[in-house]
Amino acid sequence: MKAAKWISATVVTVALVACATSPMGRRQLLLQPSAQMDQMGLTAYQQLKQQTPLSTNQKQIAYVTCISNALTATLEKQQNWEINLFEDPTANAFALPGGFMGVHTGLLNVATNQHQLAAVVGHEIGHVLAQHSNERVSIEMATSTGMQLLQALAGEQTAEKQMVFAALGVGAQFGVSMPFSRKHESEADLIGLEMMAKAGFDPRQAVALWENMQAAGGKAPPEFLSTHPSGSTRIRELNKHMAIALPLYQQAVASGRTPKCG
Question: Which of 167, 180, 243, 262 has its Cβ near the most Cβ atoms within 10 Å?
């Protein structure tokens, strides 16, 4: 029972020290200092630029940069954001702590206008704003600690061993990491939707984007085995949030924020 009490006390202490709230009001566990996460983002970004060629298409680079600048201009906390267009045929984009973003050239074939591309870039910025990378790292740290405890408690069946198994659920991957990953994706969708609306991009095009994604994706795996919500789930949640996003878009247009990125 001493081990069980020690585990419980440690978890409570860490939770009290590192508990935070996401932009959507969800409680989070953030264990890593922001400066350390930013350094991790910079290091990863430098490696990506070494491994994947950057586009030399100046028209497309200007297009992507125009959209990202319009989005980041809406943020309360201003920082330097870097975005690059990577020569990669996959329909993908990413953003890393520290303000480092990338768009794959293949995404331009699916996001067919500036509004749809803004939905993707806004989504990725949403991950950074909500510190999802920090949360994922923190979850993995907690998961690793749980696994070490399982190894330490291996052997005969004890109350402490049963408690650890119960805390972890059926398995660490499905019981901890994957549900949070779905929450992260859904949260970033809504953060990005509001951001694009405030920047003057039509939020309704976010729905059109995911319809394009569904058409391009072919047969998708069942949602419960995926770290991402299904396309139909995303579309439903985006439509529900349109009551908030559309007034923001109308206010942006009325104030003259109408990006013309191409």
Answer: 180
Whole-Å CA distances, 159 to 5, 123, 142, 172, 213: 12, 44, 21, 19, 48
98/177 Cα distance (integer angstroms): 23
Distance (Å, whole) CA 227 – CA 61: 30
Tokens of 50: 């070494």
Closest CA to 153 of 143, 144, 163: 163
Asked if residue 17 belongs to a domain, the reply is no
* Domain-located, residue 3: no
pLDDT, position 46: 87
Catalytic residue among 82, 87, 124, 160: 124
CA gap 12, 109 in Å, rounded: 48
The beta strand positions in 88-168, using DSSP E, are 93-96, 100-104
Question: Does 187 participate in catalysis according to the annotation?
Answer: no
Give the H or E element holding residue 244: helix 231-254
Q: Does residue 261 or residue 76 have the better pLDDT?
A: 261
In a domain, residue 12? The reply is: no
Task: Write the pLDDT tens digit of every residue in 130-155.
Answer: 887 878 777 666 655 544 444 434 55
Range of the structural domain that residue 119 is part of: 33-254
- Buried b / exposed e across 90-101, counting CB within 10 Å, b at 16+? ebebbbbbbbbb
What does the block give as tokens for 123? 């989504």
Residue 20 belongs to some domain of the structure: no
Asked whether the beta carbons of 192 and 124 are under 8 A apart, the reply is yes
